[in-house]
Amino acid sequence: MRCATNSVHFMPAPGESASGFLIHLSRSFSAELAPLLSALLSDPQAVASAVYSPMLAGPISDLVGASVRELLPMFAAPHSKANYLRIGEFVLRYGQINQSTRRVAPETFADDIGAGRRPYHRLSWSIAALRIDPDTSHRLIDTCDRCGRRLRWMNTFDVSQCGECTRRLWLCKGDSAAPDAYDVFVGELFNSTINVRKAARNQLPRRIRAWIEGDILDLIEVIGAVICLANQGVELPPNRSEGIEIVLAGESAIRRCLRRPLGQAMCSKDRLAPALASSKVFARLRRAPSRLVSEYLMSLVI
Ligand SMILES: [Zn+2]
Q: What pLDDT is attached to residue 268?
């Protein structure tokens, strides 16, 4: 069931996600092709989870005429490392991809419209750590500024509009706050230009420069969590912004950060405090999602 005459029109845009492209197809194809699209989009979660399903490239190829090779970049692909997947150049844990909401960058949509192209959803926007579009630095949102509802895949008829109130999302007022150190670094780590990515990695301690992106994010997360242990004595959400500053300051700074809870406990009148602080830090390092991250941090603190 090929549509050769439509094949150029229905090529995915650079960096487009499979979920966004399927929404585009569902709006663009004529009624006689609706049953095939219905089969592809068989349940409410199917659109959101399409990015994890490269096996859809074949059926979509039959539908639009583009080759499977041209369609595969829209998907997250399995990786040889268990529990990890590849998004374009990047390798992340499954848990680091978030399709539970539809995250979009309104100002990037505005850029699309200004450039005369259809506004489209980028696959990189499903990387949970990103709070900005990695190429434009425009803020990502997951909530409509008019109706206050979460942007979801299951009621989406146009990726650039709110599924609840039809708000044209490119008109949303952006967050005027400047990106923090974490946002800037992660944006550069996932930038589509290799030289930008290299420059970001070159700021890291030499031993971790070649790590996959998922492990670098986990390292920042664990250090951000240890900072909170040191500051509060209880476990709070990780302070990722301070975490990246410590990572960028080098291994001596990371080592000092990991030892800080113990140093503070040594000043306590409670004789058990040092042992307790030490066990909390080690427990947090052992809980790192990646063994590589856990072993690296252990090597600095022991
Ligand atoms: Zn809305």
A: 77
